[in-house]
């Protein structure tokens, strides 16, 4: 064995962990960059079918309000915690797939599936106890005395019953979809 081969073999055990570490750093950076880009309002509304949702959102208090605080798509639809965030991003890839495959690539096709899609979101929100809603709206942070009588009563009752936000607040940002008629057997 030559002296140069021996030198390479001695350095190889040190080189592998360094390359793996640098590869890991690049992977984490790329993942973080991808998540940040796909969490922007511009990305979310870039598909033709999302234009209807965007117009509805622009009419809501989450877009424009007296305090100037704006909740974007990611604030309501993407968890803050890394594990659930990655799961959500992975599951959301199906929306891109369906856009590309033509399942929801027009407003008409999207509307035809809107009830089904909304129910998927509502079930996910119920399962997480409206986790994304609660990052801004939490019972413990509500000053019920500042709410009107109806809201004060309903929020107090909902808290006592352990209800989650989405049980009462469907259609706050997006219009409620029309439930499809069930066909007779």
UniProtKB/TrEMBL annotation:
Its main location: membrane. Binds 4 heme groups per subunit. This is Cytochrome c-type protein. Binds 4 heme groups per subunit. The chain crosses the membrane at residues 12-31. One of its GO terms (molecular function) is heme binding. Belongs to the NapC/NirT/NrfH family. The keyword Amino-acid biosynthesis does not apply. It is found in: Cell membrane. GO terms for cellular component: plasma membrane. Residues 15-178 form the NapC/NirT cytochrome c N-terminal domain. Heme 4 binds at residues 136, 165, 168-169. Heme 2 binds at residues 73, 76-77, 174. Keywords: Cell membrane, Electron transport, Heme, Iron, Membrane, Metal-binding, Transmembrane, Transmembrane helix, Transport. One of its GO terms (biological process) is anaerobic respiration. Its cofactor is heme.
